[in-house]
Structures are given as C-alpha cells and as structure tokens.
Amino acid sequence: MKILMIQPIYDSQFTVRALLAKVEKIVAQQEVDIVVFPESFYQAATYDAAMKIMYKMAEKLHVALLSGVSLADGSEWALYYNPNPSDWETKETAFVKHSTAAKLAFDYEPQLLQDKNIYRPIYLRDYTLQAIISHDLFFPLITERLEQEGMDMLIHLTQGNVKMSKWHNVLRGRSFETSALVVCTMGHDPEQKQASDIIAYRKGVRIVPEFMVGDSFDHEDACHLFDLDCLEYVPEKNQNYYSDKKYETFTIGNDVEADVYFDARRKRLKTKLKKIEQHENSFVVEKNGERVHIHSGTFKDLKNRLYVHNQPSTPGEHHIIVYHVNKYINNKQKAIALLKLRAIESRIAVVLITKNMFVGAKTTRYKDIQLFNPIDEKIGFDLTFMKGIDSVFQRSNRKLGIPKKYEQAYLALKHEQRT
C-alpha cells in the first residue's frame, strides 16, 4: 500500500485548489492508495458539511482521503472517506481530538462517539490504519485504546511549527512501543520560527519516502509518498545529549551515598531516608518537606505504557520510577527512547539501571527532555515537573491539554474493550 503525505505551506500564495491540483497530478502519475492532509487543513461549520468537502476532494483525486478539519464548535477531527472501497474496506469514519482544543472528545455524548466508531481502525487494502491528532499522541491511553482495536499504521496529523526534537522523541518512542509504522504530517506557516516536517518511523528507525516533491524550507508544498510494502530506512546517529547540571535535591545511585540506591545483590531499591509509606512495588520518603514516591520496575515494565497508570499515587508527590534488570541491554537506543517517552507522557523522572546502562531522564516545563549520566555514581533530580499523572491534566486552560474534570473519562480508556 502507498500513502501520500501532504504538507501545505500556508503563505500568502496558498490555496486549497492549487494544492489539490498538484496532488491530482501526482496521483495520476504515481500509484497512490490514500492521501493524507494535516490537522485543521480546512474548516467547516458542521460535521456533515465537512464530509461534503471530503466527497468533493475524493471526486477530484479518486483515492481514499484522510484529512484534519476544524469545526465551528471548536473541535478538531480527522475525517476519512474512500470513494471506491472493496467489500471489507472502510468507506467513511472519523477520529476526534481529545486534548488541546476548545471542544474535546470528552465533551460529546458517548453515544455519538460510538456511532462515529472513532476508535475503530480504517481498513484499507490489507492494512489497519489509525488516525491520531496532535497532542493526543502525548497521552498514552489514547494510543492504548487505538492499539486495542488494531493498528498496522498510526497516522499522526498536527498543525505544524513545532519543537521538532520534542516531536521526534514522542514519534520515535511510539514506534518502538508499538508494532506499527508511525507517520506524521503537518502544515507549515513560514511566518513562525519553529519547523515543520513529514516524519515516519518504524521500530525507532527513520523511514524515507520513495518519492517526494516540495520542501517547507523552500516554501513549497511538500508531498511524500511511502510504500508500506517496500520501506526504505535511513541510518541516523540518534545522538543523545546529556545535561551537564548536577542536582542534589534528590539522588538515585548504586551506593549508600545516594538518597535511594539499588542493591544489585538483592535486586531491590533501598534508602537511607525514613519510609513514610510502603507499597508492593514502591515506597514514599520525605526529604526537606517534599514527598517523593519511588517505584520499582523491570525492563519489561519500561516497555509497558500502562505500568505507570497501575501504580499507587497521591496528588502532590514527586514520582521516580527506577527500572532495573541484571543483564546487558543490546538495544540502548530503544531503552533511551522509551525512557524519554515515559518521562514526557507521565511527567515523572525515570532511571534505568542495567549491567551496561545507568541513565536518568525527566522533562522540563515544555516537555523537552533532560538526560542524565551519573556523576559520582549518582543521578540527581531537582524535583520539578515530576508530579506524575495527576499533573498532566489542566485545571484552567483546556487548550493546553485534557481538563482535570475529564481525568476519570480519560483513565477509563484503558478499561474499554472492543465490542
């Protein structure tokens, strides 16, 4: 199957008509099964009006389409339409954004979302495709819900002009934790400073298109064609940059000089601080008036996006998960990519201790990653932006994430089963 990813350049010369004419020429010359446009590619008053636009675009291009659309009620949708489906293929479906929008999936009646089958995959050729929009990719239970339904490919639509390193951290991490090809397209506003790109990963390795025209750096609408049956990989250095800061507020180490240390002989975490709570796989200590919850996990737990959600938690605590295994890790890049992802998506600090790795990670306010190598056999954290899942939810501005009032609705996604 071949997927054509489109990146519009929203400058003063941009028109949807001109871009569709360009795409029409490509579709006439290349074998294309689906064309994908980014988040908010067009606007419509209602869902039905938006679908009518999809029908018109499909009439022009004669292929299946997936496109982001902004509705007048403030919601963001990914709409799919196939004008010529086979018996087993999906004709029409949709996905609605769960975060960072004026109206979210959680604002709708559950029956409406069920009627739209928003979590069901798109069946095209021999593949199952799932769409996800912008910051929804940062919320692991949304990915979990989609993967439960089936997912050979995760298609990520976003508006563009993003902190590219942050986007690569999440896209690459998701490609490691799923068996799916992860592809992303976004629009580009040349008046803004940050960049835009078309990105594809499989198992943490960057995929290059078999055909491409245009480039955002040249202010030209970009069109990249990927062949799922013949993927071309590009080697990357994947160089990781480590912070040179030395924090002593709270430390994790391999000896008793640290606040919490890993006893390799007994294969468990110990502390010189007084434990004020003890749980099956974790304990809580207090230092300088701050509660720090230390969780113990294995390398297998690092690969499980639900592990953090299944751990005990009290609002206001700082959380550190120490993943440990008494063996060598062959794929260090995978381990570090997953460490980054866990820190970003759950707002926690994470440490990995193996026979050949001792690495820590946490996020900054803007979800950039700080990686730490040990200094004097210790990794230190400053206890900022480490308050766990509870701190992920927004208490005021829903355009920055998922509102706190929808926390339980979001957490319920991990319990929902396919019907």
Unreliable spans = none
Number of helices: 8
CATH class descriptor name of the largest domain: Alpha Beta
Range of helix content: 10-25%
What's the total number of strands? Answer: 26
**CATH fold-level topology of the largest domain:** Nitrilase/N-carbamoyl-D-aminoacid amidohydrolase
| Backbone structural class | alpha/beta
What percent strand? Answer: 25-35%
What's the end-to-end separation, in Å? 28 Å
Q: Mind telling me which CATH architecture of the largest domain this is?
A: 4-Layer Sandwich
Tell me about the largest β-sheet: 8 strands, mixed
> Mean pLDDT score, rounded?
93
Number of domains: 2
Estimated radius of gyration: 23 Å
Could you name the CATH homologous superfamily of the largest domain? Carbon-nitrogen hydrolase
TL;DR of this structure?
With 419 residues, this protein is α/β, with parallel strands linked by helices. It has 8 helices and 26 strands. Strands 1, 2, 3, 4, 5, 6, 13 and 14 form an 8-stranded mixed sheet that branches. Strands 7-8-9-10-11-12-15 form a 7-stranded mixed sheet, covered by helices on one side. A 7-stranded mixed sheet has the order 19-20-21-22-23-24-25.
Explain the overall architecture.
The protein has helices at residues 16-29, 47-61, 110-116, 140-149, 164-177, 299-302, 332-346, 407-411; strands at 2-7, 34-36, 42-44, 64-71, 76-81, 92-96, 122-124, 127-133, 153-158, 181-186, 199-202, 205-208, 211-215, 220-227, 232-234, 250-253, 260-263, 268-271, 275-278, 282-287, 290-297, 318-324, 349-353, 358-363, 369-372, 378-381. The protein is α/β, with parallel strands linked by helices. The protein has 2 domains: 2-234, Carbon-nitrogen hydrolase (Nitrilase/N-carbamoyl-D-aminoacid amidohydrolase); 250-387. The strands form 4 sheets. Strands 1, 2, 3, 4, 5, 6, 13 and 14 form an 8-stranded mixed beta sheet that branches. The chain is elongated.
